[in-house]
Design a protein that fits this description.
alpha/beta
Amino acid sequence: MLIAVGSDHRGLEFKKFVIQCLTELGLESQDFGSFSVEPVDYPDIAGTVGKAVVNGQCNFGILICGTGIGMSIAANKVKGIRAALCCDAFAAERARLHNNANIICLGAERGEEGVEDILGLFFSTQFEGGRHQRRLEKLVEMENSA
């Protein structure tokens, strides 16, 4: 499993920690930037990671900014992306189980505590399908009619 990872300048140091967590979980990652503390626009990074996931270059994505909110909003503008801002393990599990999220967004300012558990649950949880599949199909319809 290959995970696309991207952050803005505010998430740079936290991104390094996240990549370390992925390695400890036995997952490979590809870093899509940012690579310095120079300011960047988070929609640019979110678009690049989103496209890498949609086109199959990577299986899933992780996006990081100060709060995770901007990255979540931006990533969900990419057709085919279901990005979820997850602040705890419960949300990470449900994002995959019920919403088949393909990108997890994290806020660097929340700190490192519990992040490995959040990532572990996100990447080990399978989509439940069933009644949730019908809802995802409605999301695709909305996306295609926009």
